Amino acid sequence: MLGSSTTHFPKLPPNLKGIKRTRTSNTTSLGIDCLDKLIEDGIPFPSIVLIDERNSKKYSKMLARLFVAEGFKTGQELMVVGTKKDTDELLESVPVEMTAAPTSASTSKPKLNEDPMKIAWRYNTAPQVAQMSMQEKFDLAKSLPKDTLDSSGLIQVYNGRNGQMNYDDLYSDLGKALKDQRFDVLSNSATSVLRFCVQDLATPLISGYSGDSLLAFLVRFKSRLMTCSAVAMVTLDGNLVDPECLKTIYSLVDTVFVFHSNVADSGTGGRMEIAKYPRCYGLVPFKRENCDFVYKTGRRTIEFRKLHLDPEGVDDAKVADDEPILPKLKELGVLATE
């Protein structure tokens, strides 16, 4: 697992839409609470999050839909990047907000004989910490009408120039969007937020594709992004990238989720690992989950569960398989001899 990002984050103006501000951090949501909590309440803002899904695009497309839905819900501006087929498919399936009836626990009235908890007067004016809801935000089974998205004026679509895409043009056109004064943090003129969703960045369909050209694009794009009120989700298939190039890509972005697909009859979509955490804020280090996760599609969302045992059947493992190593451990002094 790679270390945390040490990128310097610029100071942001107040009241930017969809940005959660604390004394030590600025974060924005991925659109799914359980992933936000795994990386300390959302991705840093600004930053780049990478979704590396191996041998499939199913779940990276779902996460892209949730990412766009979160931006639309909070009033952030969006730029969706990819082939015309991919961008059309995404914008036709942006999920609606989840609706749920209030639970009996949330609507029950306190008993008359129960006194409200009192705290010391000196804490009355202290900021309150709200418990973060772990309920799903969006319903993947229902989509927003395309007319609603089009009429909002929040969404731009980029399919390259004349239907062709290469990294030089991509950087030029995305960089042009970031030059807008409404996103300029350095001049303290930022009044809006731009959320990029870049699909399938490492693909032979991109003209002149090579590992070097991809890395050059990411270096330039990130250096520009970090001076703006912007955030980006990038998806790719790591199996299509040279291992050394992929390692460098991981070092350039701020957060990396890797999805390893399972076979169709395995009962889960696959295994997810967090290959790179964003930089941790605050005086107390963020306590990371020391395990991988399995994921699958629920009726309305993506479900994630902690993976403590090998999914291939740890129960069948025999203690005898470990016996040959015991004499060696005793010889090294790790185990006491009888």
What can you see in these coordinates?
It comes from Panagrolaimus sp. JU765. This is Elongator complex protein 4. This protein is of the alpha/beta class and 338 residues long. It has one domain (20-98, 134-332): P-loop containing nucleotide triphosphate hydrolases (Rossmann fold), CATH 3.40.50. 25% of the residues lie in helices and 21% in strands. It has helices at 33-38, 58-74, 84-91, 104-107, 146-152, 167-178, 211-225, 243-252, 326-332, and strands at 20-21, 26-28, 43-44, 48-54, 77-81, 95-97, 138-143, 155-158, 194-198, 230-236, 255-261, 270-276, 292-297, 302-307. A hairpin with a 4-residue loop joins strand 1 and strand 2. The longest helix has 17 residues, at 58-74. Residues 3-7, 101-114, 123-134 and 310-323 have low confidence and may be disordered.
> What would the principal axes of the Cα set say about the shape?
globular
> What is the oligomeric state here?
single chain
SS summary, helix count: 9
Compressed to H and E, one letter per element, the order equals EEHEEHEHEHEHEHEHEHEEEEH
Number of DSSP-assigned strands = 14
Q: Can you tell me the CATH class?
A: Alpha Beta
Name given to the CATH homologous superfamily: P-loop containing nucleotide triphosphate hydrolases
How large is the radius of gyration?
A: 23 Å
Structural class by SSE content:
alpha/beta
- Which strands sit side by side, in order, in the main sheet? 8-5-9-10-4-11-12-13-14
Biggest sheet: strands, sense, closure?
9 strands, mixed
CATH topology: Rossmann fold
Low-confidence parts lasting 5 or more residues at pLDDT below 50? 3-7, 101-114, 123-134, 310-323
Q: Tell me the CATH architecture.
A: 3-Layer(aba) Sandwich
The span between the termini is 38 Å
Average per-residue pLDDT, rounded, comes to: 79
